[in-house]
User: What shape does this take?
Amino acid sequence: MKVPFVDLSIQYNSIKNEIETVLEQVFTSCTFIRGKQTQVFEKHFAKLHGVKHAIAVGNGTDALFLSLKSIGLEKGDEVITTASSWISSSETISHAGGIPVFVDVNEHNLIDVEKIEDAITENTKAILPVHLYGRSCNLSAIKKICETYHLFLIEDCAQAVLAEHNGRKVGTYGNYGAFSFYPSKNLGAYGDAGCIITNNDEYAESVRRLANHGAISKHDHLIEGFNSRIDELQAGILTVKLKHLVHWTEKRINLAKQYTLSLKNIPQINIPHEPLEHMGHVYHLYVIETEKRDDLKQYLEEKGISTSIHYPSALPFLDAYSVHKYKSSCFPLAWKKQKKVLSLPLFPELKEEQVNYVCAQIKEFFK
Ligand SMILES: *Cc1c(COP(=O)(O)O)cnc(C)c1O
Assistant: This one.
């Protein structure tokens, strides 16, 4: 049996007609940027989150960058983020003029809330937590810290659309929630796209302006900006896919439950803890941990099962940050986890038989 890590073609085939209809509409309209499809998508995405504003942008990295840019970082300003993420979470802090300050992770590979206060200095301006793998961070605790120290909260929701903390969606706790619609994300475009959500009129206007050369309406360039807009094709595609997102997310959660049930008694591996609430984890990735990670990965590959690693190096230990000479002892959990994490195949259309096969092969490996 072959089990791909992710297969986007099955989903495409299931919505082919809807996609073709919307593409046809865009081509007929011949409006490719800043048109009706974008407006409709933004309206739906804002409504889904119960927020006033959604601003669709070029990609998830830009959603973070423009949010950070809009808080007006000055030289020496620091932004606290997690040691374990995709580099977008920290590179955007630097590009916006700030200094990324890394905090070690907890058992879930999410920013360790207990360690945030130690990282706060008089230069700290914001906290940027990442809902890694689709699991919500402890947002109520993080928000409380932000309120106590008067810090901005910018949530990296790239992997966690629809995830909830205390019954409230991620992205709605922060001053800004940043989303990615990279094709393999839970809500994936057929190209690059991203979105920022906010309840604040001023922040919304600011990021909208920055994303469009400093202008809201034509030629109204109050400031210099950037070019980061969703295109009409992606906006149309995302509106189609948004209708199916809850259903696809339920499927991810059910497949994750199946993995958990089958793998929980293998002493050599750690599996993700069940979240406290149903939508506490939307399983963008199902990540196990084992000391035998590399051998297991290769064994599964030989059995036709593709896996992946998120991520082989925690952020402080990337070459990009080597000038800081971060010590492993400063981020002990992130250091340990980078050698143990393994992401198993997971996408809504994955079949139960395939999950059973993957689990059987993992059991066989450890026998
Ligand atoms: C995918 C991702 C991003 C960046 O999104 P792009 O759309 O690829 O720019 C940012 N943060 C995290 C955690 C991601 O997984």
In short: The chain has 13 helices and twelve strands. The first strand starts at residue 53 and ends at 57.
